Amino acid sequence: MNEENTYHVPVMLKQSVSALLGSLDGIYVDVTMGGAGHSREILRRLSNNGRLICFDQDMDAINNVPDDERCTFCRSNFRYLKNWLHYHNALPVDGILADLGVSSHHLDEAKRGFSFRNDGPLDMRMNQSSTRTAANVLNEYSEEQLANIFYLYGELKNARPLAKTIVKRRAIQSIDTINQLLETVTLLIPREREKKEMAKVFQALRIEVNDEMGALREMLTTAVEVLRPGGKLVVITYHSLEDRMVKNLMKTGNVEGHTEKDFFGNILSPFGKAAKAEVPEETEIANNSRSRSAKLRVAEKTILKMEN
């Protein structure tokens, strides 16, 4: 197994890169570089005149930056997409690729706290230099705030009992490790749905720690501005919250899904008709469990540039 695959196994690699690339001389952006699986495939297909801008906020990802003069790396959250593209004189771009969610590397590193498979600190920071951790959220947020997080970001029906139990436990002892969290909430989760429900608890905390929905909203909104007419936006999503946001943007031009129509009743959007979401093939799902919930969405910016 090669180096990037030990860090992170890219999902829907061939499909996403094929959907992304138009002109092989163009400028493309991988806003979630990670193990650089998608980035390396893009570079493999680009001409010598092509260019790739990569983003990742995780300092561990620096070791995966392709050694290629056509590649520029930005250690940054992708919410600052436009600023960095302007800084590197890379506007407008021909395509943007985003592989959302948590990487294989994050799940496998117990010390990062993204998975409940092994004990470790309740960290969950994508950017290790940020100050807010999952432990901070669990020990400092109010009961109402915790309930809202579990309900909105985990879509958990028992969000309020979970929040109440956590607040009672932390009054006796702070919740700082994965095992301490599991011990606190395990009686509230049916054994037959234990893995799925715990995954939702961890998803909710991870989203809050990293402000994932806020960052995604900013990146998607910016993507409309930085893509050239005819450029492609390609996004791989893993849960309904992010997929809904992507779907809304591609259909209406905004993440909320608010529609504006012309005189003839046609929806005004900066994108042409978005393709129906693709899902991984059965063989990929069998080889990469992370791909089980993946959806690939692709949209092309309309040739007629919309005025702001």
Offer a quick outline of the entry:
This protein is α/β, with parallel strands linked by helices and 308 residues long. The chain is 41% helix and 12% strand. The chain has 2 domains: 3-104 and 212-300, Vaccinia Virus protein VP39 (Rossmann fold, 3-Layer(aba) Sandwich), CATH 3.40.50; 111-210, DNA polymerase, domain 1 (Orthogonal Bundle), CATH 1.10.150.
List the helices and strands and how they pair.
Layout: H1 3-7, H2 13-20, E1 27-30, H3 37-45, E2 51-55, E3 71-74, H4 81-87, E4 93-99, H5 104-108, H6 134-140, H7 143-154, H8 159-172, H9 178-185, H10 194-210, H11 212-226, E5 227-237, H12 240-252, H13 282-287, E6 295-300
Parallel strand pairs: 1-2, 1-4, 2-3, 4-5
Antiparallel strand pairs: 5-6
Helix pairs in contact: 2-3, 7-8, 7-10, 11-12
Using only CA atoms, what is the Rg?
Answer: 20 Å
CATH homologous superfamily assignment of the largest domain: Vaccinia Virus protein VP39
What does the average pLDDT come to? Answer: 92
- List the secondary-structure elements in sequence, H or E: HHEHEEHEHHHHHHHEHHE
The CATH architecture of the largest domain comes to 3-Layer(aba) Sandwich
Distance from N terminus to C terminus (CA atoms, Å) equals 48 Å
Report on the biggest sheet.
Answer: 6 strands, mixed
Strand order of the largest sheet: 3-2-1-4-5-6
Number of helical elements: 13
Number of E strands:
6
Tell me the domain tally: 2
The portion of residues forming beta strands comes to 5-15%
The CATH topology of the largest domain turns out to be Rossmann fold
Give the class-level CATH name of the largest domain. Alpha Beta
The parts where pLDDT drops under 50 for at least 5 residues are 1-5
